[in-house]
Amino acid sequence: MPDERVVVIGGGVGGLVSAALLAARGCEVTLVEAAAGPGGKLRAVMVDGRPIDGGPTVFTLRDVFEDIFADCDASLADQLTMRPAIKLARHAWGDAQLDLFADPDCNEAAIGDFAGAADARGYRAFRAEAKRLFDALDGPFLHNTKTDPITLGWRMGARGFGDYCTLRPYTSLWSALGGYFGDARLRQLFGRYATYCGSSPFRCPATLMLIAHVEASGVWLIDGGMHRLAQALEALGRRHGVRFRYGTPVRDILVEHGRAAGVTLATGERIGASAVVCNADPAAIGAGVFGHASRRAAASVKPQRRSLSAMVWTAQAKASGFSLARHNVFFSPDYAAEFAALAAGQLADAPSVYVCAQDRDDTGNTPSGDERVQIIVNAPPTGDGAGFTPAEIDTCRRRMLDGVSRAGLSLDLAPSSVLTTPVDFAAMFPSTGGALYGPASHGWAASFRRQGSRTRIPGLYCAGGSTHPGAGVPMAALSGRLAAACLLRDRASTSRSVRTVMPGGISTRPAQTVPTG
Fold first, then answer.
1. Among the four residues 64, 122, 149, 431, which has the most C-beta atoms within 10 Å?
2. Vertex 17: Cα angle to 482 and 445 (nearest 5)
3. Which three-class secondary structure string do you get for 357-416?
4. Could you give phi then psi for residue 261, rounded to 5 degrees?
5. Rounded to two decimals, what is the model's pTM?
6. What's residue 497's pLDDT?
7. Does residue 213 sit in helix, strand or coil?
8. How far is the C-alpha of 489 from the C-alpha of 482, rounded, in Å?
């Protein structure tokens, strides 16, 4: 397919993956990105001349990326230096502390010491259930195009019928966790996995406990930070001829004769193409951010269905008292009140706080002097409104510091620290209100409502963490892979239905059925 011209809008993980895969299959690919470099949410923030991860900090499902690099005749290991994490995270509730490890036997022993033998047995059962759910959905859902409940059952087949009937979509994650753990702190710990897709453990289905299995299957520490992954994906695309144009906003997605036909840039320049992959939140398409002609391709997301946003500090800091690991969570004393406040569009009075100490690893080293930290407090996705006042921001900062101090951690943030609010995220990712994970995964049907790879406009495809199969770095990568596969499959089908001359000189083109998955 050497004459196939494709424009990819957005240099997030989904866009980078789809661009590299399409170029490796012979397409002429141009990726246009409004920001100055690759990554999207997988970004680095420069503070005092040092890069600090300002987005995702946990790398899981390494095999997803190994497969992508292999499909492009390359090796992930040749591009990135990484090592498996022995300690997954350190968790604190005031003076109480619990570490989780890559070794499940270590976790079972630690939970037994922390909460007793019954909860250790509960953890063993929970771990088995999380694995069962992941294994059941990995092939037919995560690695496949968007589906509906009936088609999902068909994909799982007769052998998977028992799993299909027990996917637990109608029970909340919080309620399900009560069946495994008597200690409410453990329900908090494992309920926090809902926030990995920007959702509330009180409102998302118990199916999402499969996220716990993803992390338990292996966390990797990338030398230099997570943003190096975006750089590696960009290099992969360049190797196959992808043309990258940064600082280049798109004004319109062109639609001609009912098909996507390229893009018009903010400068007025037109780039023609036979297909477009949009790695932006689909809500931006539905809201008309990319012009009126493409609006029907995707639906906008109502504010009440948005996932969480965040208050994110990236800073150099002096840390003392509490012994930080690489990943640390300081839990709110009232989890229900925290999520009730967020649902009401407010910051929590006593929020949970995540601290990534980027210069620490599993060796127990303690950096001398200042160290790089990313600090996250969950926030409502209200960035398209008035935003928080300076007084509210100051209060949030104070409550964040109070939250970590309850566990004995003292953080002295340098004056050069950078705060990113929902308003800032909304500016970077239009039509989201600062929501970082697309629509929230609330209710049994949420996963089926996500935008699929194909849209209502032939030749226009979607990728990214706001589309199917879901939020998070590996899911965004899978979305890019699915978008590329759908595009190539559709073009192959179209090429087999080219215009032919029938007896009597009548030209005919077989009708096309355009899927919307």
1. 122
2. 40
3. ECCCCCCCCCCCCCEEEEEEEEECCCCCCCCCCHHHHHHHHHHHHHHHHCCCEEEEECCC
4. -130, 15
5. 0.93
6. 52
7. helix
8. 10
Residues 6+ apart with CB under 8 A from 26: 1, 2, 4
Q: How many residues are present in the chain?
A: 517
DSSP state of 142: I
Residue pair 442/453 in contact by the 8 Å Cβ criterion: no
Q: Which residues, 6 or more positions from 70, have their beta carbon under 8 angstroms from its beta carbon?
A: none
| Six-digit token string for 64 | 């997803």
Eight-state DSSP code of residue 196: G
Q: Taking the CB of residue 450, how many other CB atoms lie within 10 A of it?
A: 21
Q: In this model, does residue 299 exceed pLDDT 90?
A: no
232 three-state secondary structure: helix
Q: Are 513 and 449 in contact (CB under 8 A)?
A: no
Place 493 in a pLDDT band, splitting at 50, 70 and 90. Answer: confident
Asked whether the predicted pLDDT for residue 391 surpasses 50, the reply is: yes
**Share of residues in the chain with pLDDT > 70 (%):** 95
- Positive or negative: CA dihedral 227, 228, 233, 235: positive
Tokens of 449: 């409502």
> Tokens 């990726």 label which residue?
31
Cis peptide before 380 (omega within 30 of 0): no
Please say if the pLDDT value at position 510 is more than 70: no
Q: Are strands 28-33 and 44-47 parallel, antiparallel or unpaired?
A: unpaired
CA distance 443 to 464: 21
* Average model confidence (pLDDT) across the chain: 92
Beta carbons of 230 and 77 less than 8 angstroms apart? no
Would the CA dihedral through 196, 198, 201, 207 be positive or negative? negative
Please report which helix (H) or strand (E) contains residue 371, including its range: strand 371-379
Identify the band that residue 496 occupies on the pLDDT scale cut at 50, 70 and 90. low
**Mean pLDDT, range 43-64, rounded to an integer:** 96
Coil, helix or strand at residue 507: strand
CA distance 358 to 52: 8
Distances (CA, A) of 312 to 252, 354, 423: 31, 10, 12
